[in-house]
Amino acid sequence: MTALSRSRIYNAFLVLTCWALVVPSLAAAQAGPRFSVAFSKARAEQPIDGRLLLVLSTDPSAEPRLQIDDSPRTQMVFGMDVDQVRPGQAVVVGESALGYPVRNLRDVPAGEYYAQVVLHRYETLHRADGHTVKLPMDRGEGQHWNLAPGNLYSTPRKISLGASSGIIPIDLDQEIPPIPPPKDTLYIRHLRIPSELLSKFWGCPMYLSANVLVPGGFDTHPAAHYPLIIAEDHFNADFEGFRTEPPDPNLKPDYSERFHISGYNRIQQQEAYKLYQQWTSPGFPRVLIAEINHANPYYDDSYAVNSANLGPYGDAIETELIPAIEKQFRGIGQGWARFAYGGSTGGWEAMAVQMFYPDRYNGAFVACPDPVDFRAYTTINLYENKNAFYLEGAHMAVAQPGVRDYLGRTLATIQSMNQLELALGSHARSGEQFDIWQAVFGPVGEDGYPQPIFNKETGVIDPAVAAYWKAHYDLSAILQRDWPTLGPKLQGKLHIYVGSADTYFLNDAVYCLEDFLKTTNPPYDGEIKYGDRAEHCWNGDPSLPNYLSRLHYHTMYLAKILERMEKTAPPGADLTSWRY
């Protein structure tokens, strides 16, 4: 072998040796940062199931766990399931974690971040339908992963991410404390009951509750019995929008991004105090208003209907909770004296309970409802579109908006909203909007979790699941199918209001519904009104801006409710004991 040959061989050896040293470094860089999570706060005797959520933020103004949403302001979250983890057993969050809005940890830019990890606890539930599932139980917070009592989390810390970050240790050294139950006052009372129907379905104790606003003179008029109005809404720890004291003069004014107005917190206190003044004034109608709470393992609200995935919430509310409210707070207890109203989710519920239990309610005031016609499932036509994320043409696919601002600018797409849900939880366990629609409206999948209406990775719609949705929960389709028998029971009962610039495009479904209601025989004899350029959640008052009218739910429909009762009450009905 010549000296030249030996030199070439040696140089080649050096190159290969150097490359062998470089390749692991490149692989580590491509894999991205990794976090080793320890569970020092966990109780040693209990293995843990749940969703591990790593949050990375560049904003020091608040804890990272409080900075995740579906707007452009969001920080980053990465999620992965954990099963049967014991204290002392470290879990690595890395390449397999699903992220939002950055898809993978390897794509996070180098730099300094505030890091925090939350463990959203799951419980194992053995349902009556034979399925065993792992889900987060509500613990009084309304199904919020970042606030749920018992969830473990880490103290936020500042970290540097770069090519040589290595494995970053994080300890879940904190636990979110329990939330104390609300206390009764002169006007606001509380009721919590076990549900036999729901406990049987879920295989564990389940409860329903209500925050009840009682009328002035309730305790001094024991012979009076009252009409009941169900205020359909999301979970409320206590009754919202009622204040017995004048606004706090020392309250520092905030700024409402939604309504572009300063001091909105002061406005809310002022309107809550005005409600108290109206509520206790002479001659004001004496009625009961109940905010019902039916948080469940999928969401802060069940949509008040029976569901294959959630169980018989509709029947439980109607046959267990409402009778308990009317018994304890002296409700009249008859359909002619029972009404429902609400906005958004509550709007959909108000319409649904009026339709599914038509004789139990005498009117529904439906504001900015969630999609009442699945031909306009926000911006998706579930029956004609093949993809939920894109409007597809021959040579072009246009991303579909999911949220818009008051000028019509897109703030989030259907795809980005579902990417957030994928990061927060698999199997429809995110606690967010599309997942609860999937859980309420859909059939049960083979694994015991909701059967997806569309693939959250690709957006491809499942037409068989869409057909199930149409038959069971498309309110417009059900009205069209069943109008000959259902229509006569709904005459004069449906009052629907929505802004023409609804933030979530919910006005489109109302347009579809209105096209049918204009043709009904017998006539539906209700009303549909649109707020010109009004956003979510316009509720029917054209004389006030949306930021004010949304604070008047508890009073704005009372005149129509009284007129309806006087018109339809059966002979001998009690129209006087509650008019003191």
Quick tags:
single chain; 580 residues; alpha+beta; Rossmann fold; 3 domains; eight-stranded antiparallel sheet; eight-stranded mixed sheet; 27 strands
Helix and strand arrangement:
Layout: H1 3-31, E1 34-38, E2 48-57, E3 76-85, E4 91-93, E5 98-100, E6 111-126, E7 132-135, E8 152-153, E9 157-161, E10 167-171, E11 174-175, E12 188-194, H2 196-202, E13 207-213, E14 228-232, E15 255-256, E16 261-262, H3 264-279, E17 288-293, E18 306-307, E19 311-312, H4 313-328, E20 338-343, H5 345-356, E21 364-367, E22 390-392, E23 397-399, E24 401-404, E25 410-413, H6 414-424, H7 433-441, H8 463-472, H9 475-490, E26 494-499, H10 507-517, E27 527-531, H11 546-549, H12 553-556, H13 558-568
Parallel strand pairs: 1-10, 14-17, 14-20, 20-21, 21-26, 26-27
Antiparallel strand pairs: 1-4, 2-3, 2-6, 3-5, 6-7, 6-8, 6-9, 8-11, 12-13, 13-17, 15-16, 18-19, 22-23, 24-25
Helix pairs in contact: 5-9
